[in-house]
Amino acid sequence: MKFTRLVFPGVSMIAVTYGLARYSYGLLLPSIDETFQMSDLVSGIISSLFYLAYCFTIIFSTVMTSKKGPKPLILLAGIFAVSGLLIISSSLSEWMLALGVLLAGGSTGLVSPPYGAAIAFWIKQPLQGKANTWINSGTSIGIVMTGVAAILLTPHWRLTYFIYAILALVILIWNKKILPVPDSTLRIQQGILSVRGLKGATSIITGSVLMGISSACFWTFSRTYIEVAGNYSNLELSLFWVVIGVFGILSGLGGTVIEKIGLQSAYTLFGLLMGIAPILLFIEPGNIVVAYVGAALFGIANLFMCGLLIVWGIRVFSSNASLGIGVPFLMLSIGQVIGSVLAGTFIGEIGYGITFCIFGIISAVASFLRTS
Known about the structure:
The chain has 15 helices and no strands. The protein is globular and about 60 Å long. The protein has two domains: 181 residues, Growth Hormone, Chain: A, CATH 1.20.1250; 178 residues, MFS general substrate transporter like domains (Growth Hormone, Chain: A, Up-down Bundle), CATH 1.20.1250.20. 83% of the residues lie in helices and 0% in strands. The chain is an all-alpha fold.
């Protein structure tokens, strides 16, 4: 299959599911809060549903991709994204908002495993790494899109989510037309998920959970924090989100960085950078330059670490690559569930500044775990 014929729809689908359906919530949270008058704890609990849904759907998708092939799961991810975004845009209560969040969050878990299989099926082996890198960059592109949309449409969050839903529908139809049904001779090697299979994986499981906990606070509350702490215009607040996405695109160079300095050094370096980002907001939340530097560090470090977990996982589960991807991402999302709830609770009790400092320290401490 021609490289761009699969990669372009893949980039778009990842941008919709991860960027628009999942990560836009933190950017639009202040306007949503204003509508429903939600407490920080309720905001954190609803945000945790993105990650909770991801935990279940990534397991389901991994199993079903092996049985049904990639196309039905990719289309199901698109249907979840469209449905979730439409429900969020028309929410009449926090409960309806939570339902939309569950569906939107579930789309991200559904889409990743089948696109990995699609690349293995239809892209020649020497180009598969490049294809994976490009498709994963869709997350950053989606985040940039949400930032631009916020500049143009704030405070109309319902209209914003409705437009996202229309975009998701167009991309769903595009994927339906482009993706072929696998030839019956093609087979996906099925992984075996068992406690015995996790032996020797303590470090990567711990690192993934801690990274998930520490990143959840920034993804959910950073935009709200700087809005509360500083005298920023809507344009400046939206550009904060765009900076995260733009610098996240640089994470596509992660494979080269790991080759140059090694897995351990790369993990420690970018874990520290991810910890410095929220601490910068703690030190100078009202300084726009510092806030943008924090956003840039978080964008490149967080998305780089997601790619690094794949490399690390495949090394740990060298005999079973599916576990190498599935286990760290599942643990990452469990950490994000915990982190969202903890962050919402802490902010309500001790305020934004100290909470962001604590979550930055968690990331810094986790960066010294051994990768071997």
